[in-house]
Amino acid sequence: MLTTDMKLVLGLVGFTMVMFLFERIRADVVALVVLVLLGLTGLVAPEDLFGGFSGNAVMSVIATMILGAGLDRTGALNRLAAWLLRRSKGVESRLLLLTQAIAGLNSSFMQNPSVMALYLPVTSRLSSRTGLPLSRFLLPLAVAIVMGGSLTMVGTSPLILLNDLLVSSNANLPSGAATLEPLHMFAPMPIGLALLGAGLLYFRYFGDKRLAQYDVDRGVTPARTQSYFARAYGIEGDVYELTVTADSPLVGMSLGEAEATRGSPLLLALKTGNESRLAPPADARIWVGSVIGAMGERQQVADFAQNNFLRMSTRLRTFGDLFNPSRAGIAEAVVPPTSQYLGKSQAELQLRKQYGISLLAVNRDKTVHRENVRQLPLRAGDMLVLHGIWQDLAQAAENKDFVVVTDYPKGEQRPHKFKLAIGIFAVTMLLALSTRIPVSIALMTGVAGMLVAGVLHIDEAYASINWKTVFVMACLIPLGWAMDSSGAAAWIAGHTIEQMPEDMPLPVLEIALGLLTTLFSLVIGHVGATIVMVPMGINLALAAGGNPTAFALMVALSASNNFMTASNPVMSMITGPAGYQPRDLWRLGAPLSLLYLIVVVIAVNIMF
């Protein structure tokens, strides 16, 4: 029979679902209201009410966000984009497969939205380099990230929450029931591998044909600078290193004189002696052994090298860090009417000497000026195409003499910390493997290591945390406790079993539980669905004679089974750039959700 506490808890669950569904109030505000009501009604004791904020689950989520930001600061994923292009050797299917597989593996130790945020510029770069529209990349990538998140217990918020919910449920188990133990770090790996493999095979043999209708790229994203600047300004090609030989006529010339020679590509960097510099000043001298960083089409650069007795290399051994897209790149900036640059040319302003920025082109009244651009007096409204280190660009923009309109990394990039960050991360994963050290402590050890080593500054660590996600999770965790302790979860499970035919096979019951969890996740998100449904899954298993841990794991995995709506944070991040419409997500995502559920049910039953 329903008690008053059960009615109150079920009423709060209904309230949460309605508020999340209509989105009239922000999700974090709704979560706070639910937390306050749990306290006012006495459903959760005052001393436990704010326990969600200090729980292992919340601390693990915070740690994974910071670790992801640390890896991003080193430009690790930009290096990965270049590696993917090299390994695919221009084969579209191989490129898609490699990108999915690597992203899926990355999502096993980082929060899914964080992985997608890091991979959006990577896929933009791959798209612009290959000519494939973003719509062909982003859905397979999102699916791989969601499925790969089930490889470890820290890959998704539902799995991070699961262990805390398993432990808290022990207090309300019937007498004689076995205590539920937390799952170790890599417990779900067989399921995750099966899911990731199924996703890769789906797009390899079937899904890619369904994506073919999106060959016209409807998406626009600021990160796709390379294709944009090639189209708008004729600035295209790759960067090459040119080493000056003793026979070169450039020896003794200034960089400005070299740029004025016939057929010269864009000269963006220079190394003389031990000093490497991006956007060197025009009066910098070129000597024997100097290395020039030149940008242009391969044939143009090769002709320039041959005519001037330069050794050409396609590998960036000298300027690899300088030309890392996370550290430097091309941007557009407009000259405002109040600028002090009006009437002055680049030669007078000496942008390269003052700020380390190269002016590549000027767009004036829809006419692009690239020849003799250094001598062109600037006017209000001119659109400047600049190349330089992002930090230098941000410093130059502080004077308000031009306004940068291209999105670019505002924070300091630290590619020289790459090996250190990877080492710290490897040690973190090894600690997480230990059964003696809780995962939250292992992850926080990695955070402390990155802060001490200077991979991240503490303010950057704070900024990397999505506090809305943390707040929603911490506020809703007590709702799961109340579902369990009030007996509401057991009551629903008992009545569910009574309504079902006798001797129903457990896999059928698991499929029904998975479908119900998926429906909940469409309404209240994956965190809310996990918190509400895990206690119900455990009680359902106990009533049906199943394995409570298996049912709870089924719920946690099914909570992420949403490829159909933007309520999944990963899906919401790809709809804009790829140009997917809501009906597209339902048409493409529904078969994937069905495949996901079938694989999970089979894999969980094999494991347990």
Describe the structure.
The protein has 608 residues and is α+β, with helices and mostly antiparallel strands. The protein contains 25 helices and 10 strands. The protein has helices spanning 4-22, 27-40, 46-49, 56-73, 76-88, 92-106, 112-130, 134-148, 157-169, 189-211, 225-233, 255-260, 298-307, 346-349, 351-355, 390-397, 418-433, 439-452, 458-464, 467-485, 488-499, 506-544, 548-558, 569-578, 582-607, and strands spanning 238-244, 266-272, 275-278, 291-296, 310-313, 328-334, 357-364, 367-369, 383-389, 403-404. A 5-stranded antiparallel β-sheet has the order 3-2-4-1-5, with helices on one face. Strands 8-7-9-6-10 form a 5-stranded antiparallel β-sheet. A hairpin with a 2-residue loop joins strand 7 (357-364) and strand 8 (367-369). Helix 4 (56-73) crosses helix 19 (458-464), helix 6 (92-106) runs parallel beside helix 8 (134-148) and helix 7 (112-130) runs parallel beside helix 11. Residues 216-227 have low confidence and may be disordered.
